[in-house]
Write a structure and sequence with these properties.
ten-stranded mixed beta sheet, elongated, single chain, Rossmann fold, 9% strand, Amino acid/polyamine transporter I, 27 helices, 3 domains, alpha/beta
Amino acid sequence: MNNKKLGTFGGVFTPSILTILGVIMYLRFGWVVGNVGLIGTLLIVTLSTAITFLTSLSIASISTNTQVKAGGAYYMISRSLGVEIGGALGIPLYLAQTLSVALYIMGFAESLVAIFPALNIKVVGIVSTLALGGLALFSTKATIKAQYVILFVIALSLLSLLFGGAIENSSIEMWGVPAAKSVGFWQVFAVFFPAVTGIMAGVNMSGDLKNASRSIPKGTFLAVGTGYLIYMALPIILASRADASTLVSDPLIMRRIALWGGAILLGVWGASLSSAVGSLLGAPRVLQALTRDNVVPRKFSFLASGYGEEGIPRGGTIVTIIITLVSVILGDLNAIAPVLTMFFLATYGILNVTAGIERFLKSPSFRPKFKVHWGFSVIGAIGCISVMFLIHAVATVLAIVFIVGVLVWLRRRRLKTTWGDVRNGMLLQIARFVLLKVKPMDDAKSWRPNILVFSGAPMKRWHLIDFASGLAQEKGLFTVATILPEEKVAQDKIYQYEKQIRDYLFDKNIRSLVRVVRAQDPFSGARYLSNAYGLGPLVPNTILLGDTTDVSHHESYAGMITHFYQSRKNVIILKDDQPLPSRNKINVDLWWGGLQGNGGLMMVLAYMMQNSPHWQQVSVTIKMVVSSEKAAAEARKNIDNLLASIRVEFRRKILVSEKGDFFKTLSVDSQDADLVLCGLKKPDNEFAEYFEDLKQKTATIPRKLFVVASHDIAFKEILS
């Protein structure tokens, strides 16, 4: 064990209690008592501490389940809810702590200049930042020892207040000043609540603790309990020594009440500096953890290093000092102070959510020594969210927007981690609930594509995967299926192949399921998989595959198509001699033979293409061949009525061919189309010969989608 690491008292209790007993206690507690009276103040203290205590329970539960390394709250959240959610809170948490250093130092400078007007406020702020920063750069233990001195000063100020006397004849006012002159209960609550939110100062020291799993719960509970006792005693002292109106009007009323008023000033300065020190120690360690997990871009990798026997994150500390100096020089930070508070509260809320989810799911990996019912965590999360809106609704919205923005940025970077998280367990619980509720999709109105793609190796027939992804986006599911030969691939290699395909699809930003099976030949394997694959009502309803080029496989291929059709699955065959453009304008020709059967499915597929974000612009033209102008007029009328009734933006073109040579007309009129949709006859014993003849007749068309609809699907109802 590293003797340079910190224990419970120095590493958790001291920074936490010093942040709790901050400037709000000295400068605003009298105002709180004056406005809502003794009973109101005790109620506010109890409610505020209850929310903090519930969060402490969640922290204790998470920290006793596993080793907590550097990063504090970020580390806990990211290891449970994933690196994206952890980072989305970790980055604003780091910024909030860094800017909090500037806020505390500016508060210290302002109070010092008020006593010594000759001093320059910015010079005091810069000197204070450099002094505290230098201490944090070279010794964490020395910085903690400096906090011991501040802790002694605060204790001295409280004793001076305790042994002081009344400044006027007054009785304890239970409900403060008259209602016409006082601020409302919840407004006062909002002002006071940040005073009890200092527990994160100790949690953020997780990487510097000898035993984080023991010190974090013990030190946090001790700090919350000590703070609660002090905050419950102070209102009695204040209410018994001054009238409510006096308490409201004088921010430094404690200085007048105390035995030695100078001790209160020292306490105010000590509280400001201790809060600054707590944030100055915590912020770089959060940044260090973010960098180690690659949340921070790799070019800043130097921030991940720790120096000396104490592993001090000097890179992160220097960055924090620079940001603080710039903030101090620029001046007023009051405008963003509410947003910073929201970042802290959002972190507390997510910690409660994390512990609640872990406990609710009863994951075998979540076995904390400190067990908390998930209901307490939920109450804590609701409390945090409620307080956020009570304190500052606009700041809450801005904080949420910022966090969501960071989350979107991190998701686009597609970070990979070496640890699991609770999200899979949570999703499995949801999936279990849904699967037991979902009924077989006999209702056409609820039909969605669930495509089984027989692509083989994804690199060889990528156009099939790309097409299926375009169809299924935001509307359905699709599975990339591969059949491997039994004699060449052992069963224990299947998982490895599936993982390789999943990783490949992940890198290509394709959201798909993956299934790999072994079989004697690809056709028997495809039959088996189409029969067996699926879960409950979620089974593939559509098969997508390419064509076979091996003459010896024609009969087996045709038999496979027949099997799919008889299994009540739609079959679409993409014969793509040239890749289909993914983003440019695409012209699709749909050769029409009526809405029944294949016609309905082709219209559904064309509509899905037209409305998929996968393709930039898809123009669909329904084409039909008739034998006379009279038939053409009737066909135009029927198709126009159909398109109006089903509300799709398709064009139509009726072609007259007196000789009735359909395929010659198709080949000429669709020569420049990007994709041509054609229906197939129902598969039967002569399907192999029929399909080969069809391919010959459409050989001049480079990209074709042959469609055969299952006789079990009423596509007319889907479109209506």
